[in-house]
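#structure-requests
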Amino acid sequence: MSRLAKLTVTEAKLFLRDPIGWFFALVFPPLLLVILGSIPAFREPDAEIGGLRVIDLYVPIIVGLVLTMLAVSVLPSYLATYRERGILRRLSTTPVRPASLLLAQLAMGLTMAAVVVSLVVGIGVVAFGTAMPEQVVGFLAALVLTAAALYAVGFLVAAVAPSAKGAAGIGTVLFFPMMFFAGLWVPREAMPEVLRRIGDFTPLGAGVQALQDATNGAWPRPLHLAVLTAVMVGAGLAAAKLFRWE
C-alpha cells in the first residue's frame, strides 16, 4: 500500500471516530431521502413542477447535500484543526509532506462521496421509482465539476479560517444559502424566477440543476458548467495562494 493510501485510510478511521460528523455527512442524506420519499404527496406527479414528482427533484438535491457536507463542512474544520495544533508544521519535517495530508483528505472525501451518492441514487431508483440518469456522461460531468467546485470552496475556507471554530463558522454560513439555492427547502422548480436566476450563479444551484437536466436526458446547460468551472478555478487558485501551513 502506498504512503498516500495509508494516510487516506488513517484519515478515514479518524473521521469515523466522530459520530456527529459521519452521521450528518454519510447517514443523514440517505435517511432524509427515505423520509421525503415516505410522504405520499411527494410521490405524486405535480403539474406545478412540470409533471414531475417532488421526490424526483430531491435526488439531485441530496446528492448536492452530500458533497456540500463533506467539502464545505467537514474538510475545512479538519484542516484548520491540523494547522491550529501544529500537525501540518510537524509533518513538514517528516517524509510525509503536509501536501500529502491535503491529498489524503481529498481522496477520503471523494471516496465517501462516491459511496453515499451511489446509495442515494440507488435508494431513489429501488424504493421510489426515480429515474436513473438518462444522460449518463452529462450526469458524471456535472457530478465531477460540482464536487471540484465545492472542494475548491472548502479548501479556500480552510485557507482563510483563523481556527477550527472559525472554519466551522464560515462553513455553516456558506452551507445554508448554498442549500437554499440548491432547492433543499423549496425545490428550484417551485422558486420564483428571480431566485432561480440567482441560484444559477451559485455553485450548488448550478450543480443541482446540471444534475437534474442530465437525469432528465438533457446535456447540462453551458451556463451551469461555466459557473462550476469558474468557481473551481477561482476558489482553487485563491486557496493555493492563501493557504497557510502554520
